[in-house]
Amino acid sequence: MTNPFKIFKIKKEERLFAIIALLLFIFLNALTICSHWNIYTMGAHGGFWTIFTKHFLMSGYDCWTWIMVSGMRIHFTTIRHPLYLSFLYPLYLLNHWLIGVTGVNFAVFMVAVVLVFSAFYAAIFTYRILRELLSLSRNDSMLLVALLFSFANVMLPVMVPDHFIISMMLLTMTIYIAGKKMMKRCSLDNWQSLLLIFFTSGIAASNGVKIMLADWFVNGKKVFRPKFILVGIVFPLIALLAIQQYQYRAFEVPQQAVIAKIEKKNAAKMSVKDKQELGNHHKWVLAHRMKSPGNGFLTLLDFNTPRIPVLVEDYLGESFLFHKDYALDDVNVNRPLAVAYHAWWCYGIELCIVFLFIAGVWLGRKNKLMQMLLCWFSFDVFLNFILGFAVNEIYIMTSGWAFIIPVAIAFILKSLPEKYHFPMESLLFFLTLFLWCYNTGIIIHHLY
To answer: Cα(329)–Cα(446) distance, rounded to whole angstroms?
Structure first.
């Protein structure tokens, strides 16, 4: 059996790039932690909800991971992230012991290590996809990875305590593994599919569809063999469901009862002013939340929110370039559904990225890896844009699909005559440098 950990070994050619990426990702996490250093590291006995939710506001991303590692309070939906609690629980146990010994909450540092690790390998795997699978030059590969992480809502998941960058690492790793298999005309083994589905779906359930699509593109008709279906697909999904159900009964149900008592007790103590503020906030949420067509599963969907402003300002706007108005504010707190840019050049940059994406997709349309990524992207469009899952903050999903853009641009670079390479590289360098400066500037202004 091939050593599955060999993929994490940094190659000699990657070392300089790896050091630069590591330092950048550490810097971004330091920005988040240092913004409220004394508050975030308070070793409070309970009260972590107030500490973090009062001071953390980053564009719709949640601080539930910090709260979980700090005080074993579960606020994320485990059915959509069935393995996430199991992953965080050992961190909680270690942190709980450290708080007792030192009085300091180390949750922000522990989570930062996970974020830096995930972002680092997401960058490494993207570099390998461009360099090894598409045969780009070393400099062009580094430039396109830098462009990817300059996008507003790819940069932000690197530094916020949420699952998105972990998911991105696992998806880029899957693309690299699948691409290698395609190059060698090999099949994905049962155990490889099992591990990929177990871990990627464990972090975000919808990732399972992408892994199954990867299985199909790599293995072809072999994917329909009973043994592959049972071992590579059904078994990991059943295991994840079993883990989630155990966690739900062992941790979530007892916690819900405790929280209900606390909320009832707090409501009795609430002043008239506090009740009025809570009522006003509730009205805001009702006015700006998703317009669900029904109950049950339908509560996750939205067919009524206008799609054109969402497409222009959020899906193809905020994904790449932060808006200065309501910068990094939350749609569930005070941000309107769609915010317009004040300057025409913002739409110019958005249009430039979209044009490069479409041109690259067209040039790479016959490539099997590009076809797989287009299927992934189509699934994201169908789920988030058409069905409306999380359509009110669709930009926070960017890190789950934006890696297709550098792959598409790679086909432009591969197709251009030599004399046009420097102008294209200059355009990409300008876009990358501008987006890094602009988006980082807005983040720093928001935090400090």
So the answer is: 9
* Rounded CA separation 18/112 (Å): 17
- Tell me the per-residue pLDDT of 178-204, one tens digit each, with 9 for 90 and over: 999 999 999 999 999 999 999 999 999
pLDDT of amino acid 45: 65
DSSP letter string over 81-123? STTHHHHHHHHHHHHHHHHHHHSB--HHHHHHHHHHHHHHHHH
Whether residue 331 contacts residue 60, with contact meaning beta carbons closer than 8 Å, is answered with yes
Q: Check: CB of residue 175 under 8 Å from CB of residue 129.
A: yes
**What does the pLDDT read at residue 192?**
94
pLDDT, greater one: 293 or 92: 92
CA distance 408 to 369: 10
Name beta bridge partners: 104. 42
- The DSSP line for 365-400 is TT-HHHHHHHHHHHHHIIIIIIS-TTGGGGGGGGGG
Written as one letter, the residue type at 330 is D
pTM exceeds cut of 0.90: yes
